[in-house]
Amino acid sequence: MLLSLGTLEPRKNLTGLLEAFARLAPQTDADLVVVGGQGWRYDGALARVAALGLAGRVRFVGHVPDEELPRWYNAATRFRLSFPVRGLRPAGA
Fold first, then answer.
1. Can you name the residues that pair with 58 across neighbouring β-strands?
2. C-beta of residue 57 within 8 angstroms of C-beta of residue 25
3. DSSP SS3 for 45
4. Which residue, 21, 31, 46, 72, has most beta carbons within 10 Å?
């Protein structure tokens, strides 16, 4: 399972994640699980999933209470940070 966590709104670049997953999906059997409450402009993400042919591979879980988050992190094989964090650099940068 590939995990993305955060409120679903444009600044989190969910569209970019979906497009990247569309390129990766043929190479993996892992599905994308998106955990987070619905923010503004959320409907566009749902439409993008359908347009990219990912309806069976992307699951929107919705808001999850903080005490349940460790279960989601532990189940994930990969985690996607949804926005840049000041001072944090990708490996090799």
1. 32
2. yes
3. helix
4. 21
Distance CA 18, CA 87 (A): 25
pLDDT, tens digit (0-9, with 9 covering 90-100), for 42-56: 777 888 899 999 999
Could you tell me the sign of the dihedral formed by the alpha carbons of 56, 57, 60, 64, in that order? positive
Total count of residues recorded for the chain: 93
| d(C-alpha 47, C-alpha 54), whole Å | 10
Residues 6+ apart with CB under 8 A from 57: 21, 25, 31, 32
Q: Which residues of 14-47 are buried (b: 16+ CB within 10 A; e: fewer)?
A: bbebbeebbeebeeeebebbbbbeeeeebeebee
Q: Is the pLDDT of residue 58 over 80?
A: yes
